[in-house]
Amino acid sequence: QVQAVESGGGLVQPGGSLSLSCAVSGSIFSPNVMAWYRQAPGKEREMVASMTSGGGTHYADSVKGRFTISRDNAKKMVYLQMNSLKPEDTAVYYCNYNRRWLREEFWGQGTLVTVSS
C-alpha cells in the first residue's frame, strides 16, 4: 500500500512564494508519475503539474512559468515550488502517485494553500 503525505501549505500574500513537499511511502515502482492536483472551493479537482520517473514534466497553462515540480526518486519525494502566487491559486493541493496504465493510483490527504492579503 502506497501512502502520500503533503506538507508546506499555509497562508501567503499575493506575489509570494510557497513550497510544498510530498513524502511517498510503501512499495513504488518505475515507471510512475508523481503529480500535484488542486481543488478550489466549488470547483473540480485539476492537475497542476506532473513529473514522470524519467523526468518528463507537464504543467497546467495557468501555472506555467510560476510553478516548478521536482522529485527525488531515491527519497521518494515530490516537490512543488510556487512563485508569483495569485488569489486564484487558493485551493487544497493534493499529491498524487499513479501508474494508471496498471490501475494504480494513490492520493495524499491534501494541504491548504491560501493566497490572500
List the helices and strands and how they pair.
Layout: E1 3-7, E2 10-12, E3 18-25, E4 33-39, E5 46-52, E6 57-59, E7 67-72, E8 77-82, E9 91-99, E10 104-107, E11 111-115
Parallel strand pairs: 2-11
Antiparallel strand pairs: 1-3, 3-8, 4-5, 4-9, 5-6, 7-8, 9-10, 9-11
Written account of the structure:
- The structure is a single chain.
- 0% of the residues lie in helices and 54% in strands.
- Strand 5 (46-52) and strand 6 (57-59) form a beta hairpin.
- The protein has strands spanning 3-7, 10-12, 18-25, 33-39, 46-52, 57-59, 67-72, 77-82, 91-99, 104-107, 111-115.
- The protein contains no helices and eleven strands.
- The mean pLDDT is 96.
- It starts with a strand and ends with a strand.
- Strands 2, 4, 5, 6, 9, 10 and 11 form a seven-stranded mixed sheet that branches. A four-stranded antiparallel sheet has the order 1-3-8-7, with no helix packed on it.
- It is mainly beta and 117 residues long.
What distinguishing features does this structure have?
7-stranded mixed sheet; single chain; mainly beta; 11 strands; 117 residues
First CA to last CA: what distance?
40 Å
Order of helices and strands: EEEEEEEEEEE
The total strand number stands at 11
* Average pLDDT rating: 96
**Strand content of the residues, in percent?**
over 45%
Q: Helical percent range?
A: under 10%
Spans of at least 5 consecutive residues with low confidence: none
Global outline: globular
Task: Give me the secondary-structure category.
Answer: mainly beta
Largest sheet properties: 7 strands, mixed
Question: Number of helix segments?
Answer: 0
Radius of gyration: 14 Å
